[in-house]
Amino acid sequence: MDEAAGMIAGIEPSVERGLACVRIANRHGEALVYLHGAHLASWRPTGQREVLWTSARSAYQSDKPIRGGVPICWPWFGAHPERAELPAHGFARTRAWAFAGGSTRADGATSVAFVLRDDAATRALWPRPLRLRYQVTVGPALELRLQTTSADDRPFSLGGALHTYFAISDVRAIGITGLRGATYIDRMRDSARETEQHERLTIATETDRIYDSTTACALDDPGWSRTIAIAKTGSRSTVVWNPWIAKAARMADFGDDEWPGMVCIETANAGDASIAVQPYGYHDLVARIEVQGR
Ligand code: BG6
User: Fold this and answer.
1) Number of H helices, E strands in the chain
2) Model pTM score
3) Is residue 135 in some structural domain?
């Protein structure tokens, strides 16, 4: 990693909290990606506050996901559809990814790439060849691209998410636009199917919803005078999650009083919206996140 990373200005290998990571710094902003899970833990556009929320109680251990930032949920979302004993949200977020180089663009954006291949441990959880590439680009926007390339002669069903945790002024004050008219599975109400009626969705209790057939949405945070626009491709659902008081208290890696400061708006293929990956096929999951003043 050292040699490849050292060759590109603005990309520095580092170790934070005992884990290897890559730091990106350019005129557009700064970011930090751990090799553990290829986990983007921080993105701060120049002149802005931090955009991503990370729990002060997060573990930083090779066998546990980091609580916050952008965990990569892959190849399933939530509980495994048939085998409840398998890890929630798949295993990509707890594997050691390899750094695969960086590059810069004419507009000053910097990209870093990470790859994950199958090994004995992944095949025990998911008995297939595995070819994953993840590219993080820090430019005028943050661009996240997760590429799944099938090396398999059988089709498979792919779920997952770029499980983005946003730092916000107060979950009780923010609004999410762009979801009106979308049907959703309300996991707080026995997975009842509902249709979103609100132009500006607000959150006033524990919320765990999978919205279908979504395209772009935006997070409006009046307390911090900013709107975060989230555009995407290759994603058929958007998950909105805040654990509120009781669930936060039950989670070992989530501070009891941290829930007001975060909301997850996840670029996902979740619930019924998995992707059919054809033999030797290909799927690209992309999120483009941009901070706009109000
Ligand atoms: C969300 C799910 O995506 O992730 C929630 O909708 C879940 O149900 C949350 O609680 C956190 O999951 P985990 O596995 O990181 O604790």
Assistant:
1) 3, 23
2) 0.96
3) yes
For residue 50, what is the domain's CATH number?
Answer: 2.70.98.10
Does some domain include residue 123? yes
List 173's β-bridge partners, or say none. none
Contact 53, 168 (CB under 8 A): yes
Q: Name the catalytic one among 28, 36, 163, 258.
A: 163
Task: Write the burial class of residue 57 (CB in 10 Å: 0-12 exposed, 13-18 middle, 19+ buried).
Answer: middle
Mean pLDDT of all residues in 11-38: 97
| Mean pLDDT value across residues 278-283 | 96
Pocket lining: 143 vs ligand 1, CB cutoff 6 Å: no
Is 130 part of a structural domain of the chain? Answer: yes
Best mutation site among 208, 238, 267 for ligand 1 pocket (most ligand atoms within 8 Å of CB) = 208
- Tell me if 125 is assigned to some domain: yes
Q: How many domains, the chain? A: 1
Per residue in 79-133, pLDDT tens? 998 999 999 999 999 999 999 999 999 999 999 999 999 999 999 999 999 999 9
Q: How far is CA 97 from the centre of its chain?
A: 15
The rounded mean pLDDT for the chain is 95
**What is the structure's pLDDT at 2?**
43
Kindly tell me the burial class for residue 30, based on how many C-beta atoms sit within 10 Å of its own C-beta (0-12, 13-18, 19 or more): middle
pLDDT at 294: 58
- Range from 192-201, 211-220, 240-249 carrying the lowest mean pLDDT: 211-220
74: nearest Cα among 164, 163, 160? 160
Is position 196 annotated as part of the catalytic site? Answer: no
Looking at this protein, which amino acid is placed at residue 251?
M
**H or E stretch at 113:** strand 110-117
Length of the chain: 294
266 as an active site residue: the answer is: yes
Please give the residue range of the domain that contains residue 71.
3-168+241-258+274-293
Q: How far is the CA of 258 from the centre of ligand 1 (A)?
A: 15
Residues 160, 77 contacting (CB under 8 angstroms):
yes
